[in-house]
């Protein structure tokens, strides 16, 4: 494993060496190894060469040679004469020079200007505003970039285009801090804008970090989209802000229910200046009417029932549709036509049902009376023969009782 690690290390060294060769101005990422090639140096010892370093770690030129030992863990001369910095840092920025003597006595010099860099984390916008008010200064948010080197710069964009501070409608407050131990930078940029009245209703802001070194890509924040609120004058001082995109539809009567032949008034309220054009939509289809903020439906009939909405169109704010409202007709019954007309269709129906039930009850009662009278008459007829028989029996009994009495009276005579 030691052999494999050594081969891997030398492969890394040789690849970095090949990248560094032929370049006088070098950049290296902090914490990564850097190899500087000494031109003209013999590939194998003995070698006559020396390295001189003037960096943030030295007060004067530091001299290194193959015969001398390494400079702590900062740098050492490799067997091929190159200089290795195992983990370059901010203090290693500076000038590196090598002077080599070939075997035939030819002297070759090499010189490098080394700079280091550290890519920061992705910038972000902190404390973003929830909305903006037209005509007054507003804080959009603060763009923050942390952990970069060199410091770099922050810039703002509006709808994808650079936003240039002018001290009036656009101003930027910047702050740069450096960590006392790592030496890395933290940048903060606070953006203030004053949206114009009648401007874009939904501006999009973003921020980007540009490194302080060439050939390094910029880093961008996620964009934020804000709504602009405008101030309106209504016959007096400035009123409270109203969202430019808010369109309200007011209906009278409020329920949207009206009697047949009644009147409905629809009013579209869009508090923007200048006033927008208002068009009307019924059941998803635009109505062929001239622009108007008021739609009057007189003598409402079944053809007027449906769902209505209005669309406000402004040259700067675009189009915005209101919420829909439903218009319906209340069915009513004329006075005197039914027993329940005063109370509306529901009570009229109930009264009609009660009337029918009452009529059926009266009919049933009459039928019952007729049936009772017929039954009574038939009963009287049945009783009449029975009474005649009883009378005849009584007469017969009386006749029988009279005959013995007559016989006795005859027998007692002379």
UniProtKB/TrEMBL annotation:
Disordered: annotated span: 378-414
Entry's transmembrane regions: 350-372
Annotated signal peptide: 1-22
Gene3D superfamilies on file: Immunoglobulins
SMART domains: IG (SM00409), IGc2 (SM00408)
SUPFAM superfamilies found in the cross-reference section: Immunoglobulin (SSF48726)
Record's bilayer topology term: Single-pass type I membrane protein
Annotated GO biological process: cell surface receptor signaling pathway; cellular response to glucose stimulus; DNA repair; DNA replication; inflammatory response; negative regulation of biosynthetic process; neuron projection development; phagocytosis
Record's GO cellular component terms: cell surface; early endosome; nucleus; phagocytic cup
Compartments it resides in: Cell membrane; Cell projection, Phagocytic cup; Early endosome; Nucleus
Biased composition (Acidic residues): 387-406
Protein name: Advanced glycosylation end product-specific receptor
Organism field: Pteropus vampyrus (Large flying fox)
């Amino acid at each position: 494993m030691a052999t494999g690690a050594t081969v891997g290390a030398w492969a890394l060294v040789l690849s970095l060496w090949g990248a560094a060769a032929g370049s006088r101005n070098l950049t290296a990422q902090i914490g990564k190894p850097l190899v500087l090639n000494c031109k003209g140096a013999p590939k194998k010892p003995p070698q006559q060469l020396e390295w001189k370093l003037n960096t943030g770690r030295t007060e004067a030129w530091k001299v290194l040679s193959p015969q001398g030992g390494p400079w702590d863990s900062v740098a050492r001369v490799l067997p091929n004469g190159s200089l290795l910095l195992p983990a370059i840092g901010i203090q290693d920025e500076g000038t590196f020079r090598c002077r080599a003597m070939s075997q035939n006595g030819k002297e070759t010099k090499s010189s490098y200007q080394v700079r280091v860099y550290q890519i920061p984390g992705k910038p972000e916008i902190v404390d973003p505003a929830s909305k903006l008010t037209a005509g007054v200064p507003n804080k959009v948010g603060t763009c923050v970039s942390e952990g970069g080197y060199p410091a770099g710069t922050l810039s703002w964009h509006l709808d994808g285009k650079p936003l240039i501070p002018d001290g009036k409608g656009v101003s930027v407050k910047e702050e740069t801090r450096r960590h006392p131990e790592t030496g890395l930078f933290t940048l903060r940029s606070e953006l203030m804008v004053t949206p114009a009245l009648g401007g874009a209703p939904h501006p999009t802001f973003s921020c980007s970090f540009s490194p302080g070194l060439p050939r390094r890509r910029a880093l961008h924040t996620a964009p934020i989209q804000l709504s602009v609120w405008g101030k309106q004058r209504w016959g007096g001082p400035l009123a409270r802000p109203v969202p430019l995109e808010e369109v309200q539809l007011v209906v009278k009567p409020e329920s949207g229910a009206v009697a047949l032949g009644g009147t409905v008034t629809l009013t579209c309220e869009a508090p923007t200046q200048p006033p927008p054009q208002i068009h009307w939509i019924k059941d998803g289809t635009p109505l062929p009417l001239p622009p108007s903020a008021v739609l009057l439906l007189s003598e409402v009939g079944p053809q007027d029932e449906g769902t209505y909405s209005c669309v406000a169109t402004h040259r700067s704010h675009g189009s915005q549709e209101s919420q829909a409202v439903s218009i319906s007709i209340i069915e009513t019954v004329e006075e005197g036509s039914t027993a329940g007309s005063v109370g509306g269709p529901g009570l009229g129906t109930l009264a009609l049902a009660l009337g029918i039930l009452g009529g059926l009850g009266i009919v049933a009662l009459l039928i019952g009376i007729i049936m009772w009278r017929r039954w009574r008459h038939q009963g009287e007829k049945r009783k009449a023969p029975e009474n005649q028989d009883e009378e005849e029996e009584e007469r017969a009994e009386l006749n029988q009782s009279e005959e013995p009495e007559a016989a006795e009276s005859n027998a007692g005579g002379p």
